[in-house]
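Fold this: Probable thymidylate kinase
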Amino acid sequence: MFKRDLNFAKPIQHGLRKGFYIAVEGIDGVGKTTQSNRLAKLLRSRGVKTVLTGEPTHMAVGRLIKEGLRSGGKYSEEVMALLFAADRLMHAEKVIKPALRNGMTVVSDRSVISSLAYQAVATRRRKWVGWINRYAAKPDVVVYISLKPEKALKRLRRFSAQRYERLRFLKAVDRMYRLVLRRGWRVVWVDGDGTVEEVGERIARGLAKFIPELRR
């Protein structure tokens, strides 16, 4: 029964694309933002036209999401899930699709995969979360940075705690990520335990099979 509930985990893909869409994923505290920036810089240094982006965005709905994350309980989990889905559609229309049509490589710090894990756990409504994200842009490859939730939370506690930064929750999200990503997604699994440089090198090696410029 549970496996059938995960059939939502394959968003519909629309339109012809010439570019390549990479999503960097993982629970909070694994270093997604750092590694997204590092990867984009590396690709550009190898001559790959690259757009660096992320979710939630800086657009109007994205700002509401950030407000909800900071405030904790201002919005219900269902409202947060809808906000993420709306922000994601605007992100695709304004940033991702135009870049892909122009043959660029998109590196995104989070994608629809985040909602299929975080919001599915938070709302306990997996099918519904999949349904509201059914038109989301689908990454060509997902880089999943794996780190034990205990270590990730230890990193996070050096900063201010936010809505989803609780050990029990992070463990559940990590499990959901793994279940979702094993349902037909193309994934580069990366050990996130190490220095920024070590993790970055693992990502580059994993992506080399998809991006020729990373092989040299």
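The chain has nine helices and five strands. Confidence is low (pLDDT under 50) at residues 1-12.
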